Amino acid sequence: MKNTCFTGLLVTSLSFISLNSLSAVADDSNAGSLQEVVVTATFRDLDILTVPASLSVLDQQVIAERGAEHLQDVLNAAPNVNFAGGASRGRYLQIRGIGERSQFVDPVNPSVGMLIDDIDVSGMGNAATLFDVRQVEILRGPQGTRFGANALAGMVNIRSNDPTEDFEAALSSGYGNYDSWNMGGVISGPLSEGLLGRLAVQQKRSDGYIDNDYLGRDDTNNIDELSTRGKLRWLASDDLSFDLTGMYVDIDNGYDAFSLDNTRHTLSDQPGHDSQETIAFGLTSTWTGHRAFTLKTMLSWSDSNLEYGYDEDWSYNGLCTGTPCAGGEYSSTDNYIRDREASRVELRLTSTEAGQLAGTIDWVAGVYYDQKDEDLSRKFYDWVLYTPAEFDSRYESENIALYGQLSKPLSERLTLTVGGRWERFDADYKDSRAVKASPDDDLWGGQISLEYSVDHNTLVYGLVSRGYKAGGVNGEAVGRAASNGFTPSVIAFLNERLEFDTETLLNYEIGLKGSYLDDTLQLRVAAFFMDRDDMQLKGWYNEGPTFVDYIDNAASGENWGIEFETVWQLTQQLTVFANLGWLDTEIDNFIVKGSSGLIDKSGREQAHAPNYQFNIGGRYDFGDGFYARLEAEGKDSFYFSDSHDQQSDSYELFNASLGYQSLHWDITLWARNLTDEDYATRGFYFGNDPRKFYADEEYVQYGEPRVFGANATYRF
After folding, report:
1. Radius of gyration of the chain (CA)
2. Among 93, 210, 582, 689, whose CB has the most other CB atoms within 10 angstroms?
3. 3-state secondary structure of 458
4. Domain spanning 2-715 has what CATH number?
5. What values do phi and psi take at 64, rounded to 5?
6. Of the candidates 161, 117, 41, 401, which has an alpha carbon nearest to the alpha carbon of residue 283?
């Protein structure tokens, strides 16, 4: 099946390459040109078809027609992109099989970075609400030159709408099943001479998709999200402009997602929560006063209070009444309170045409500084001392980087681009169990690419890029193993892993991008091979309901595959699209500690790396503003973890929407997962059911069931 999928993708990709020869004779009398898609995450704003790298852009139309209100609602539209549950939203992302799946106690350096209007929210995906968002850009592969340590696997860049020169305003509302509703408003326009502003506010609420049978409630996994974004643009002079962004996100979601019976019916007597309050500001100045270069200065600051807690036993006192149990049930909660403050400064020089080196070489040079402080307070029940307990830790990290890029035309059609980044990473960790560590490293990454313009329609490229991810600390795992009374061999195993090393990745990629049939057909194909060294993988050791998680370095890993994206406007009315991904992965020399000894996971596929993903569909314009959209998406089964062998099931979902657009109105009827498919987004393997004497078994968290609703927006 996997080889068949790969062959089909390859044949389909190669067959489209020949379409270039058809463009001269194509009859476009019944179709119009597709719109240009501009990418903002690169050093210069570029048409997506001219960027020599694999990436996807999901625009306002996709967001609206899918009824999407959060990033997780659109991720399946991009090939080789996955996300993990384990929270109220898909906070943790994987690109090409690389990325975190959770965070409990110890600090985590993300493999997939996330920016919202140039403000770094990596690892805090709850903030990725999509109201008034212009587009979501997903860059696949290491971004060693542009983004550095937070982008080993790739980057997600979310851009909201900018202030407008003319006044505009809009009110929107939406309603759906599970008592879901949202209300929002936008106002934008000139405030005074040379000063523009925009404000967008939305409140979203839903009961969620879980029934708590013990409490008799259907809202213990609820959604309650307020997002506010404000922007000011000051055109100070002909040469100088300032863009100020303010963001306030208040997330107060419930968390009651896991069931002892692996259903959407829980028995928790103390349901959890997943909260985030973030205040953030970003200031960007752009100066064009020198003929040779543009100077851009970017500053950002954010303060986030995050609280994540859950009912550890997923049940209630009395569960065992009248039934045989493992000496009676236990009852406890686990709660994590984090205060995370981050600040960043970046200065970048970008050459103009007059400033090209030797008259032909474009260049970029920059300096970057980033500081993060994270305080954790964990409140839990200590089953060794049989008393409530608290654990505290502090993690401070500092990154200083220099980067640059040169782009040289070697001929009229061939261009060479070379970029590099050096980064100094320093961190300090200490906790209430007297564990201390100070990991530090000199990191470097970059990219070399060749792009060849076959003609004005087709770009072929090849690149080699190097990414990196800083090492870190397993402080809490070491301390908790001792406090839980684990055997000396387990404690010794974890002590050897107090610190883990930096991971590096080499990405080899070739691709083709083109626009054919008089710009009615766009095609993007990429094939890649990624060589991971000292790859950071999460391991688990558990004894019944008691467990520790830790990060360890495997010797190496390999990830390779294909990404295929196309959109074709067949007629003025009908547009079809297909986004396909194929991925194969392997772990080499990863040893985990099991109850029966050491287990070697060499040769196994990596976690959350499905072999195939697809998103195909079409949109039909009936005229007079009416349209319909139908799409299918799905993915292969994948391992939930690198330390156990439980897998999800493969699945297919169907989404649809009907809409009407006019000068003042946007009305959309939408539905996702029309067939009400049950599919897993996260899975664990341990013992938590006293009725089964705490025997190890698989537990899963389900993605959203069939959801539907209606959204309406009125523009003034």
Report:
1. 26
2. 93
3. strand
4. 2.40.170.20
5. -70, -45
6. 117
Spatial contact of 77 and 613, defined as CB atoms under 8 Å apart: no
Residue 499 makes CB contacts below 8 A (sequence gap 6+) with: 437, 439, 471, 472, 473, 474
48 vs 539: CA distance, rounded Å: 38
Cβ proximity of 200 and 228 under 8 Å:
yes
> Residue 228 and residue 249: Cα distance in Å, rounded?
6
Nearest one of 393, 275, 282, 432 to 342, comparing CA atoms: 282
Give the separation between CA 326 and CA 694, rounded to whole angstroms. 7
CB-count burial class (<10 Å; 0-12, 13-18, 19+) for 18: exposed
Q: Which residues in the chain come in under a pLDDT of 50?
A: 1-29
Contacts of 353 (CB under 8 A, 6+ apart): none
Residue 587 tokens read as 């772990």
Calculate the alpha carbon distances from 690 to 249, 365, 563, 671, 687 in Å. 39, 60, 45, 39, 8
Q: Which two tokens stand for residue 331?
A: 């009852």
Q: Is the pTM of this model over 0.85?
A: yes
Q: How far apart are CA 255 and CA 276, in angstroms?
A: 13
Question: Rounded to the nearest 10 degrees, how much is the dihedral formed by the CA atoms of 173, 175, 179, 182?
Answer: -20
In Å, what is the CA distance from 184 to each residue of 136, 174, 362? 20, 9, 43
Residue with tokens 């240009």: 36
Longest dimension (CA), the chain: 85
Please say whether the beta carbons of 75 and 540 come within 8 A: no
Strands 436-437 and 414-431: antiparallel
Residue pair 533/556 in contact by the 8 Å Cβ criterion: yes
Alpha-carbon 517 to chain mean position: 34
Element (H, E) at 363: strand 362-382
Position 56 scores a pLDDT of 97
- DSSP secondary structure letter of residue 22: G
Which residue, chain included where needed, has tokens 């569960």?
319
- The answer to whether the beta carbons of residues 456 and 135 sit under 8 Å apart is no
Return d(Cα 477, Cα 633) in angstroms, integer.
Answer: 38
Q: Give the CA count within 13 Å in the CB-facing half-sphere of 313.
A: 19
For residue 596, the model assigns a pLDDT of 67
Strand partners, 585: 559
Round to whole Å and give the CA distance between 467 and 409: 25
Residue ranges of alpha helices (H) inside 435-583 are: 475-483, 488-495
Residue with tokens 């550890």: 312
Nearby residues of 288 by Cβ (< 8 Å), 6 or more positions away: 239, 240, 294, 352
Q: How far apart are CA 192 and CA 197, in angstroms?
A: 9
The tokens describing 174, both together, are 């939406």
φ/ψ region of 274 (left if φ > 0, alpha if ψ in -120 to 50, else beta) reads: beta
Classified as helix, coil or strand, 490 is helix
Is residue 454 within 8 A of residue 20, CB to CB? The reply is yes
Length of the chain: 716
d(C-alpha 169, C-alpha 715), whole Å:
6
Q: Look at residue 8 and give its three-state secondary structure.
A: helix
3-state secondary structure of 118: coil
What is the rounded CA–CA span in Å between residue 210 and residue 227? 24
Number of Cβ atoms within 10 Å of the Cβ of 690: 22
Backbone φ and ψ of 353, nearest 5° = -60, -35
Identify the pLDDT of residue 700: 96
| Amino acid at site 661 | Q
Cβ-contact 403, 447 below 8 angstroms: no
Provide the pLDDT for residue 27: 43
Query: Residue 465's Cα: distance from chain center in Å?
Result: 20
